[in-house]
Amino acid sequence: xxxxxxxxxxxxxxxxxxxxxxxxxxxxxxxxxxxxxxxxxxxxxxxxxxxxxxxxxxxxxxxxxxxxxxxxxxxxxxxxxxxxxxxxxxxxxxxxxxxxxxxxxxxxxxxxxxxxxxxxxxxxxxxxxxxxxxxxxxxxxxxxxxxxxxxxxxxxxxxxxxxxxxxxxxxxxxxxxxxxxxxxxxxxxxxxxxxxxxxxxxxxxxxxxxxxxxxxxxxxxxxxxxxxxxxxxxxxxxxxxxxxxxxxxxxxxxxxxxxxxxxxxxxxxxxxxxxxxxxxxxxxxxxxxxxxxxxxxxxxxxxxxxxxxxxxxxxxxxxxx
Length: 321
What we know:
The protein is an all-alpha fold and 321 residues long. The protein has helices at 2-12, 17-31, 36-56, 67-83, 88-106, 115-135, 137-140, 165-186, 189-199, 201-206, 211-237, 247-260, 265-285, 290-304, 306-310. It has one domain. It starts with a helix and ends in an 11-residue tail after the last helix. 40% of the residues are buried.
């Protein structure tokens, strides 16, 4: 037992490279002043990816409808700013709360059935919400989206500018805070039980782990984190549309988590940086065929394997170090 707690303690300790990594991330709006808008987009996507990794990488729950919570967070923040209070932080808290409640309700749908069943159910939830957002035009703006969202200054001092610098700092800070909380959670005894049920659900049940309760909790938490990402998008763009519920948003999210690696929270962050960086770079070269080249990259990644790409000594059949 002592060794188990010692292992968890070692996991919770920050590695030497981690503070350097986050300092570079937080300094990126200063280092790349002309790219603040893309940095903001990467930060939001990274937070969204971290939320998916909580259920896919640590719990083994496959989802193609994670955009449901992202979209709910976006609309909740936009409606709150337009009809209640334009303060960004209050809107962020409200959006997280609404998405968390939705996640708690939807967690009832992923308890039973195969992975294919979960895929269809989660996808169905996102499509239903998308149709509701389209039909309830008096509340959501319908197909035209919710326009005229005006955000107040952050902390009462920092206005959102056209260059996206305040937005980038805001999104990166929220990403860091929620990442630290998620990292603490997955490296706790609770996180250890999640990994146990991911690896073998029947064995986890046999040793007394409340599998159903654990799945419900992590699904609900992941929904809240995804809602935070959606809220950041709506607040920093002053706009929310039915596109936030789109299937391709969930599909792209799965791809970038695969690029960075599942079961490792940094995989979502790194995957977002690579995916958005490739998208921005390739689309500037070939606007019509950028999806082909990203698809080719993913095919190579799957065929060759991430370990072979990151370890040159294994490129020609050598053994891992």
